[in-house]
Amino acid sequence: MKPVIGVTTSARSGWRIFPLVAFNVWLAGGRAVRWVAGQPSDVSGVDGIIIGGGDDISPDLYGGQIITSSRLDPARDKMETCLVEEAMQQGKPVLGICRGSQMLNIALGGRLDQDAYGTYDKSERVWTILPKKVVEIVPDTRLAAHTDTVPMKVNALHSQAVSTLGRGLRVAARDTGGMIQAIERTEEPFALGVQWHPEHLFYARRQRAIFRALVSAARASAEQTAQLPQVDEGAPA
Questions:
Q1: Catalytic residue among 80, 98, 146, 158
Q2: Residue 99, SS3?
Q3: pLDDT tens digits, residue range 79-116?
Q4: Helix (H) or strand (E) run with residue 18 in it
Q5: What is the distance in angstroms between the CA of the first residue and the CA of the last residue of the chain?
Q6: Annotated catalytic, 82?
Q7: Which of 39, 61, 34, 74 is nearest to 50 (CA)?
Q8: Structure pTM?
């Protein structure tokens, strides 16, 4: 059976982006279900999770300042924080996309740079779904194992970026100006966050490999769970 992947989305714009993410999951051999704040989202009912892009994360969660132009969704922030924590507890793999990469870091105790391009003034500032930003993959990382270490061109739709790493995370990619563009867990369960949007780049083999990495980890997690002894709650003590 295909691994089931729960995908968190914005309540405002998720209806547009979910089909594209679901398509990428399908290409990788999985099946996606959409999760929105205020509706059921059960980690135990899926084999893996994608924390999707969209709304800004509330600065309250990482010590930033409220900006009037920010699109905030506190209910989504709370839902996704809980989902990441539960996924780690249950051994379920997680992929974070753009906002999702930032949320993965925050949920594990990290922080964000609210004005990333102000800090990294040598980073090329682009705002496009087209692959125009160059990122450099760190050797000997999970990401490198799936995409190799040749610099890749990606899209960019962000002004914030990971600064202080969360528990158990390491840098997996940076742009040419030094800004963090991907993070990952060093141990199981699998967790990878990319600052770009690979779902828009499904025509690129290395971007599809990111979704395949998640689905493969989800399949392995599901098989491991299936091998655990089943407890008969009706059996006498």
A1: 98
A2: helix
A3: 999 999 999 999 999 999 999 999 999 999 999 999 99
A4: helix 14-27
A5: 34
A6: no
A7: 34
A8: 0.94
Angle between helices 205-226 and 14-27 (to 10 degrees): 80
Structure tokens at 151: 């610099």
Place of tokens 């980890």: 217
Write the DSSP string, 40-98: ---GGG-SEEEE---SBPPGGGTT----TT--B-HHHHHHHHHHHHHHHHHT--EEEET
Beta bridge partners of 56: 72
Task: Give the chain's domains with CATH numbers.
Answer: 4-226 (3.40.50.880)
Report pLDDT digits (tens) over 30-79.
Answer: 999 999 999 999 999 999 999 999 888 988 898 887 765 568 899 999 99
Q: Catalytic pick from 80, 158, 184, 197?
A: 197
> Is residue 199 among the annotated active site residues?
yes
The residue ranges of DSSP E strands in 82-147, in sequence order, are 94-97, 112-113, 128-137
- Other Cβ atoms within 10 Å of 118 Cβ, number: 9
What span, in angstroms and rounded, lies between the C-alpha atoms of 124 and 68? Answer: 25
